[in-house]
Amino acid sequence: xxxxxxxxxxxxxxxxMAMEPAGANQFATRASKDYWNxxxxxxxxxxxxxxxxxxxxxxxxxxxxxxxxxxAGAVGEGExxxxxxxxxxxxxxxxxxxxxxEKDAQGHWSTTTTAxxxxxxxxxxxxxxxxxxxxVPPSGEVARYVxxxxxxxxxxxxxxxxxxxxxxxxxxxxxxxLTRMWVSDEPPRPLDVQALTALCDVFFPRIWLRRAKRVPxxxxxxxxxxxxxxxxLRQVGSEPVLAQAQGQGFRDxxxxxTAQIWAxxxxxxxxxxxxxxxxx
Amino acid sequence: xxxxxxxxxxxxxxxxMAMEPAGANQFATRASKDYWNxxxxxxxxxxxxxxxxxxxxxxxxxxxxxxxxxxAGAVGEGExxxxxxxxxxxxxxxxxxxxxxEKDAQGHWSTTTTAxxxxxxxxxxxxxxxxxxxxVPPSGEVARYVxxxxxxxxxxxxxxxxxxxxxxxxxxxxxxxLTRMWVSDEPPRPLDVQALTALCDVFFPRIWLRRAKRVPxxxxxxxxxxxxxxxxLRQVGSEPVLAQAQGQGFRDxxxxxTAQIWAxxxxxxxxxxxxxxxxx
Lengths: 280, 280
What we know:
TesB_ACOT8-like_N (chains A, B), ACOT8-like_C (chains A, B), 2 domains, Porin, mainly beta, Thioesterase family protein (chains A, B), homodimer, Acyl-CoA_hotdog (chains A, B), globular, 38% strand
């Protein structure tokens, strides 16, 4: 893959989304160091790359409505190839199967990530948000969170905690795993469906909050349902969005997380859920 | 495909799960008439078939932990072929890509359904259900719901509504879309992971309850996270389970649903979510 990327903005997120055609339905890219986690890329940025493979595919029909991304194996620093196949195209909807592959230590292409996605032509109908945005102070009145937990991707987000912040004491006390916070890209960047995909994975692990104990974790599957159209996302601009997450069940090595993202005006932008492996 | 099925129980659900090897990673079957909906099979039974293709695959590692099924096109009455590919096998986890294909009117094989799934070796860790079962009367004290909505698959479930039942008046009044009910297979059958997959789709459309209006709908993507092990499911036996569902957002043709399933003793068995198309 050449190092020449075209039509890419200066923002780290735009650079992370750049990819080049590499054969039928295939696109070459690599994990962004700007979004590096401890031993690989931030899962949200990998999920956004899977979305981007669909969104920049020449045969795409409509806007992204839903995506599920499965983290099957570690993504490294090498070139990856994302294959995005339109498995079924209907009149107004389209279903995608997406895989990311990277060369393993033996030089074989190994699947690191799988995904399915659905796109659909936008249309207007009766609409109603049942899950109302909680009453919270506006983002301008909430201080930014500064962490001593030094991973690169955390510097790509401006997080302003409201409820259920990162535990200060790791004393093993059981607490509700409900977190609320204002979040925006850092530096600010107009919200789009790719950035919203990444942002839905921004929460620290629910089990750390529930148990006040840091155990090894890793997301295994992650879904986003996009309630907002591309137009509605454009209206958010680069304003912080309200992000809420909570776990429901922690059992024998896996816990789940449900999440909601609202525009500052209260419009529900996305709902998300994930299942996360934990070790102890 | 021959009509000879081996090792199949007498229950309609067992007959619906029967499939035969049809090449590498491929299994032939068809949609069960016992679980027929208005113009095709009940989505839950199709999802369970996708799970079954993994569960009876000779290369499967461990128990089913998560599955996402996408309803890409109509499933008809003809033979279908389910392909279940182990995309990545790790030491204790395995990721699957699954597709269902059926011959279309022109005789071409067309993808009707896509899915991804994860299996993992069972192991014991610290565990905790944060989402507690609501306090409800025991199933023996709740009357079975009898509907005039005549589709075959509804006769395969014994539903005992507690809250947010099927609207009696279609007057357009806006209500919370929260439903609680006891549910069991009909006739009774010991719960397993396949049956639990199907059962997570048993709720009538949240938008009908929210709007008190019946509009055309169809699930487009459906996920289940299995918190219970196969052992824990066996302990439920054929007792009714408590099923709860609610919508969060209804916008421009799609609404979501989150759901929880508990054993009668209060153990969280599964959490589920889906995105559903609606017309008006």
